[in-house]
Design brief:
alpha/beta; 14 helices; Rossmann fold; 2 domains
């Protein structure tokens, strides 16, 4: 039986005591996934305690008002105060919401009632552009939002291309820490498809909604069909709404794209990785308001997929135009189709870009690299 030594006691006492507050899966949004990774990381220099938010159980509920969310707020505040003093946490780690005015109001309530109990506040901004959402709010909410968010001790941004939220809330210090994920592709030992007689396999993964650029992608596919370029597109994810699903399916029908497009729904685990493994190009024409550094792009990179994606916010921190993929202007299906067509005609270029994508992933975006960076950031607070 292992004994707890004096050295262990001294090390524990020297650890930084942090209270993290946030949502973990489900639902499986990028912010929730990364908070779970932080909790699982066992940072060597950090005693990380956690108070979960439980406002959304489904992607449809994120950022939307529900009465049950309102009733949960007092309980959340009580649990934060309780953990603050029971665990001796002097640092508050908090990811601003930012998807909507509802999320901003939630943050205002929680932060105004809890933030002053801590010596230092760290915001980890996954939902980029939350200050832009504040700008659209009534004046009273804007004033309260600055009181809640203003002058944190540290803001962790995902990339240098992230929206300037840290500057706008006058953060004392700002550090960029890109997301990192586990190398799922490394355990597969696959070989890329080499049968050029098959149609080019395209892949989209994400919420199937307007601002994720899904209609842009469908329009680009219609252009590829007109040019006689054989392809098959798998769209992985849940529809944003029944109305948008009807719009997408009607577009596919009207342009005779049924043989070339599959709405495959939500896929997880090995089933999802098989889609990545069997694809040739990852397509991500997003202009999502809270987009920052999308995890699905990193997933594509680890599977050696060249990416054609929007030149939008943190996307360009992962995709080097002409190196591991192409960046295109937002809402531009013609240029998007041009770039996919270029890769379709040049399998050597596809292979070279795919190899570069995996190289960049292994160097900068693995889970191990991210854990090391996060531990250093927390230690330096």
């Amino acid at each position: 039986m292992n004994e707890f030594t004096d050295a262990d006691d001294e090390r524990f006492r020297s650890m930084i005591k942090v209270l993290a507050v946030g949502q973990v899966p489900p639902p499986w949004g990028g912010q929730a996934v990364m908070i779970q990774k932080l909790l699982d990381a066992n940072l060597p220099d950090v005693d990380l305690n956690f108070v979960p938010m439980s406002f959304s159980s489904d992607m449809d509920e994120i950022g939307r008002f529900r009465w049950k969310k309102l009733f949960q707020l007092p309980t959340l505040v009580f649990r934060i105060w309780k953990a603050r003093f029971q665990k001796g946490c002097k640092i508050l780690y908090y990811p601003p919401g930012g998807e909507s005015i509802t999320a901003i109001c939630r943050d205002i309530f929680v932060l105004l009632l809890c933030r002053h109990a801590f010596h230092k506040t760290v915001f980890h901004v996954h939902a980029g552009g939350f200050t832009e959402v504040v700008d659209q709010a009534p004046r009273l909410i804007r004033v309260l939002a600055f009181m809640a968010y203003g002058r944190p001790d540290l803001v962790i941004q995902l990339t240098e291309k992230s929206p300037p939220d840290a500057d706008r809330i006058r953060a004392t210090k700002t550090i960029n820490v890109p997301n990192g994920i586990a190398d799922e592709a490394g355990s597969w030992g696959w070989q890329k498809r080499s049968d050029s007689s098959e149609p080019l396999k395209l892949l989209f993964v994400g919420v199937v909604g307007p601002s994720k650029g899904v209609l842009v992608l469908l329009e680009a596919c219609a252009l590829l069909k007109e040019r006689g370029i054989p392809f098959f597109l798998n769209i992985i994810g849940r529809f944003y709404s029944p109305e948008f699903e009807q719009i997408c399916r009607q577009f596919v029908t009207d342009h005779d794209l049924e043989p070339s497009i599959c709405f495959a729904g939500v896929q997880t685990g090995d089933k999802k990785w098989i889609f990545f493994r069997e694809s040739d190009i990852f397509c991500f024409p997003t202009y999502f308001e809270s987009e920052n550094q999308s995890l699905v792009v990193l997933e594509a990179m680890q599977f050696s997929l060249p990416c054609v994606a929007s030149d939008w916010r943190g996307i360009s921190s992962m995709i080097q135009d002409g190196e591991n993929g192409f960046l295109v202007p937002i809402k531009n299906p013609a240029v998007f189709a041009d770039r996919v067509a270029e890769l379709a005609r040049d399998p050597v270029l596809r292979s070279e870009m795919g190899e570069k994508a995996r190289e960049l992933f292994l160097n900068d975006f693995t889970e191990a690299v991210w854990i090391e960076r996060m531990n250093g950031v927390m230690r330096a607070i």
